[in-house]
Each structure stands twice: as structure tokens, then as C-alpha cells.
Amino acid sequence: MNNDQEIFVDVITCAYNHENFISQCIESVLNQKTSFKFRYIIGEDCSKDNTRKIIEEYFLKHKDIIVPVYHKNNLGPSENTRELFSLVKAKYVAFIDGDDYWCDSLKLQRQVDFLENNSDYAACYHGCKFVDENNLVIKESKSKQYSSFNKDELLCSEGALITNTVLFRNELDFPEFMEKVPNGDAFFWHLIGFHGHAKFLPEIKFSAYRVHSSGIWTSSSNLQRLENYLITKSYILKNIIVHFPDNKIYAERLKKTVINEFVSFFYRQLYAGNYVDYIRGYVLLFKFKQFNKWCTFINHISDLSNRLFNRK
User: Fold this and answer.
1) Alpha-carbon Rg of the chain, whole angstroms?
2) Predicted model pTM
3) Would the pLDDT of 140 be above 90?
4) For residue 233, which of 189, 172, 282 has the smallest C-alpha distance?
């Protein structure tokens, strides 16, 4: 890679068994039109298909942009992300998974322009559409994601951002336990809150988040997702207590997000008739002592039981 010009943005992609999607992902990054230099770091995690071969073909044509990282052993998405992030040198960072793609060739330029002119903001993002294996739109991101988040909302994990939409400043401080956090993207947004707000940019075309059978999120069970959610929130709580030991407000706000997620989980299982996971969810909650004392079990059980036995 030619180092005559400073790299302004590092784009990171984690790729594993993405042979059907990786070309579209790479093309969407290479198609970015910018006034600055950006670098594209791709971590190939020992795929069982032709993902690595496809990446190598693109690398040979775009050595001035692409930095391939071929792992010798399968690391998994979290460790792969950490390995790639350790290579970041640029002022700004963007993520895009190997099965997703961007739809706006000016995405990076517009996001950099905003952050360069708004020092109070640590990140900016845009809308996202969920697509299937054939690029057909399933749904769009929720309307609450069309508004900006202040730093307190991010710190308290109230800001739900979709990874491939975000550009953030490379100034995050990672705690030692970061490698244990299962939902690394959620923890990233929490860390961004230490440095500023996150701005929604409506002028950028929606990116595409791929939903398919072999996707990590899609293939996870309801309980698996809930447990990962709880583990992640427990580490966010730990980090809040470390940095704000006398600030009870942040902990209380985090508490509300956990309770709301649990109530939502139980309702979903109830209406789907998934009573086994409904009960297992309560059992799981008791494993997390820092959270279960917050929940008013009698009220929830009473309310949900009434809904259960009065369903039409």
C-alpha cells in the first residue's frame, strides 16, 4: 500500500463462509467516492467455502486499498473483530460484515464531513434495510433509530445502532474484559458514549443488513440471544460502576433497558406459544444477580399469566 497520503478511515470486515455475498460487500466499499484515503481491512476466518479465494482475487486488483488478514485458525466473530481493530491506525473507523453491503457511494464522505465539523459527536450513522439472500427487502430499521442519541443514552446502552451504518472516531479505550463480551457491537456504542453523541444522517441511503440461515444472529436461539444480551449488559454495568461509582442515575437507566428487554422477550414467547422458553427465560434471569433484583417478578408473572389464560 502506498503510504504517501495519510489514511483517514479504516473499514473493517469480518468474513466467514460468505462466498455468496462477499463480492457485493467488497464492491460496495471499493465504490466509495472520497476526497481522502481509506484502507479496507478484511479478516478471513478460515471459511469452509471460497470466501478466502474471492478476497484474494480482489486484493490482487486493489493492493492500494485492501489489507487481507488470513487467520490460521477460526477465531470466531468477536476475536476476529478484536484482531482487526488492533490494526486500525486511521482517525475514523467503519464496520461492515462480509454478508452486508452499503448502498450509497458517498456514505464515508458524508459521515467524515459531519464528524470533521462537529466535535461534540463521536459517531454518526444512517438507516438500514434488512434483506434476504436475494437482496429482497424484508423490513427497514425501526423509526427510533432515525433519531440521534446523546452521550448519556449511549453510555446507558439506550442507543441501538446497526453496525454497518456507523462511522466513529478512533479514540475508544477498551477494558481488559472486552474479550469476554459476546455482543461486541453493543459494547462499542456504550464506549462511544464516553466521547460524545451519535448523529443520525438522513441524507445517506440505507445500507443492507443480510438476514440468512447461516447468519450468526439468525442461527442463534431465543435463549442464546437473551443470555448474550444479559452478559453484555452485565459488563456494561460493570464499566459504568468503574467509571461512575457515585452516579446511580446511569445504573438506573441501564436497569430500565434490561427490564424492558425482558418484558419484550416474555411477551414474544407468550404470543408465539413458546412456553418452554418463557419459563427458561425466568430461570436464566436468576443466574444474573446484578439484574434479577431489579425485576418485579410477581407483577410480570401475574400480568403475563393473565394474558396467557385469556388469549383468544
Assistant:
1) 20
2) 0.86
3) no
4) 189
